[in-house]
Design brief:
Four Helix Bundle (Hemerythrin (Met), subunit A); 145 residues; mainly alpha; 0% strand
């Protein structure tokens, strides 16, 4: 089997696997999947800058653009009406991350990517920690409905 065919089959499997995971995911899990996707792309973009493989600038720009779309989606998913100060603070933090990713792309600055990865990693850890509480609340709503 050629490398192309193997990669093509792997990509198809990953696509089906990802779509299946999204279809069955609760809102908490979907946000976690977005964070994981952004962190994965950021790690790859950082690797492009640090290792400089052939075509790295285009790949880095593509990965950072995808990461920025995900961070923008995370920011857009905030419930500003009910989230109060926490939602406002997260919105400002996501906006800062977007500026840092723009800077990383323009200046080829792996340090900016690392900073965003650290910030997003901290948010991800907190999101995981609240997961059990979110699920309990959701189960309570379903049982009451």
């Amino acid at each position: 089997m050629s490398g192309y065919a193997r990669n093509s089959k792997l990509a198809a499997y990953q696509s089906v696997s990802t779509h299946g995971s999204v279809a069955g995911a609760d809102p908490h899990r979907l946000v976690l999947m977005l964070m994981d996707g952004a962190l994965e792309r950021l790690a790859l973009a950082r690797g492009c800058l640090e290792q400089r493989p052939r075509g790295y600038l285009g790949r880095k720009a593509q990965l950072l653009s995808q990461s920025m779309r995900i961070v923008g989606e995370l920011r857009g998913s905030l419930n500003m009406a009910e989230g109060g100060e926490l939602a406002r603070n997260l919105s400002e933090l996501y906006e800062y991350m977007l500026r840092q990713l723009l800077r990383a792309n323009a200046d080829n600055n792996a340090g900016c990517i690392a900073e965003v990865m650290g910030l997003l990693g901290e948010i991800r850890s907190a999101w995981i920690a609240i997961g059990p509480e979110v699920r309990r609340q959701e189960q309570g709503r379903v049982a009451a409905g």
